[in-house]
Design brief:
Structural class: alpha/beta
Helix content: 40-55%
CATH architecture of the largest domain: 3-Layer(aba) Sandwich
Largest sheet: 4 strands, parallel
Bound molecules: zinc ion
Strand content: 5-15%
């Protein structure tokens, strides 16, 4: 089985050959935890969950590291300005680590709902300050950084003389410089493209650590270079993230790593494309920043209804990860219908009895499913092949076609592997207990109303008490009733 992945660095699909099989190391840039996860967070999480699941299915022992950024990410991804987490803490009058814990918990809740598997290691930037200081020192020792007023900056121009700054994003430093005005207040830097490895903290900055250069904090890009090499080694297989991270974040990561270790660390760079909303980029200022919870509750003004976590997951998987995805209510409704078709076919499949033989080549469906995944994780094509299986299942279910025991087992296997294990979809209709309980309570309540109308108060009270005994509390109101689990 040969898996090909598109490497952003070489700009072509490459055969996946891990450095040290059967082990595979994978590092993905995780969230900066100062706000609720939104649709833009769901895409990388689901894309790399798909890869994590598929590599495990192929038999690799995967160490998946996804970090939590809890320090050093300043506003506008710049080297000046307030730390995003410190700012939230100041506004909410919380300790910065309370902000981190609160939004990390909420991020985990959302990931669980989306059936995104937890990574093997989830390191925090603030837990690796010493290692980050060590890497700053290495880069200084190797001559690729300089101190300026207590801060340490990466010397991009010097690096670019011996290596290529811009190798990942395809940007050329001379062009970048020609198109940039020297900004005021950047006089600490020799060059506007130099970036902070260590920042001296201003007197009001709360998140700070002592160092030989100054009381300060690490630059945003540094944590990923440090934590990836700490947990995966100086050379590892896969580094992933959203396309918005290619420049400057990953470009700077490569420069730092090469400056510190003398060589590249990542064999395959993978990037998922972005999600637009009604054709527009997502952005706080545009008012189209929809959080995942708002999707699940239908509580944002752009949403016509609530969309379940699996609908969001299916919607994202319906596109290849390198294509753009445009959110609209119509697209989500269509995704929800597609998912329902798949899940209903699965239910039907479990009830089918073998009789006769099916004229379709079921082996070729399985082959096509693998071929789609092996072609750079083409989940869009995989789903199209699964819909072919759905068509066959429905034809057998309707009695229009026969199926043999062997074919039936093959179809069941295809669903188990591709729908549930690899795409990571779940059947939400079978686990929606609160909806089922709600319908049952409603049924009992109608019986109570009927008894009351017949002045049979004993039966009515009896039913209410019986519900109470199994933990369901009913409160009668003038115009209806409320219920809750006790
Ligand atoms: Zn990163």
């Amino acid at each position: 089985m040969e898996l090909y992945l598109y490497n952003t660095l070489s700009r072509k699909k490459e055969l996946f050959e891990p450095i040290n099989p059967p082990f595979a190391g994978m590092y993905v840039c995780g969230p900066t935890v100062y706000g609720d996860a939104h649709l833009g967070h769901a895409r990388p999480a689901i894309t790399f969950d798909l890869l994590f699941r598929y590599l495990q299915h192929l038999g690799y022992k995967v160490r998946y590291v996804r970090n939590i950024t809890d320090v050093g990410h300043l506003e506008n991804d710049a080297d000046e300005g307030e730390d995003k987490i410190a700012k939230k803490a100041r506004l909410e009058r919380l300790e910065p680590m309370e902000v981190v814990q609160y939004f990390t918990n909420r991020y985990h809740d959302c990931m669980k709902k989306l059936n995104v598997l937890p990574p093997s290691i989830e390191p925090h930037a603030s837990g690796h300050i010493i290692e980050q200081q060590e890497m700053v020192q290495q880069i200084l020792d190797n001559g690729y950084a300089y101190e300026s007023n207590g801060s340490i900056y990466f010397d991009v121009e010097k690096y670019n003389k011996q290596h290529t700054y811009g190798i990942l994003s395809g940007r050329v430093l001379d062009d970048l410089m020609a198109n940039t005005r020297q900004l005021e207040g950047q006089d600490e830097k020799r060059n506007p493209f130099d970036f902070a490895l260590w920042k001296k903290a201003s007197p009001y900055h709360i998140m700070r650590w002592p160092s030989k250069w100054s009381d300060g904090f690490p630059g945003w890009h540094l944590e990923c270079s440090v934590m990836s090499s700490k947990y995966l080694g100086e050379k590892f297989d896969i580094h992933g993230g959203g396309m918005d991270l290619v420049f400057p974040h990953h470009e700077c990561e490569i420069a730092q790593t090469v400056a510190a270790h003398g060589h590249h660390s990542v064999k395959y760079w993978l990037h998922n494309n972005m999600i637009t909303i009604n054709g527009q980029k997502m952005g706080k200022s545009l008012g189209n920043f929809i959080t995942l919870d708002e999707f699940f509750e239908g509580s944002h003004k752009l949403l016509e209804q609530a969309y379940s976590p699996m609908t969001i997951r299916f919607f994202i998987l319906q596109a290849h990860y390198r294509s753009t995805v445009d959110f609209s209510n119509e697209a989500l409704v269509a995704a929800s219908k597609g998912l329902q078709r798949l899940m209903e076919a699965n239910k039907a499949l479990q009830t089918l009895k073998a009789s006769g033989n099916n004229s379709n080549d079921i082996d070729s469906i399985e082959k096509n499913c693998y071929a789609a995944m092996n072609d750079d994780l083409n989940s869009a094509l995989l789903i199209a092949h699964l819909m072919e299986a759905v068509r066959i299942i429905n034809a057998v279910y309707d009695g229009k076609e026969g199926i043999s025991e062997l074919q039936l087992n093959k179809l069941k296997n295809i669903f188990k592997i591709f729908v549930f294990d690899i795409l990571g979809l779940t059947d939400e209709s079978s686990n929606n207990h609160s909806e089922i309980i709600g319908s049952l309570v409603d049924m009992v309540q109608q019986m109570r109303m009927k008894a009351k109308a017949e002045k049979d108060y004993q039966t009515s009270d009896n039913l209410r008490n019986k519900l109470g005994e199994i933990g369901i509390e009913i409160k009668d109101r003038k115009d209806g009733y409320d219920w809750k689990l006790k």
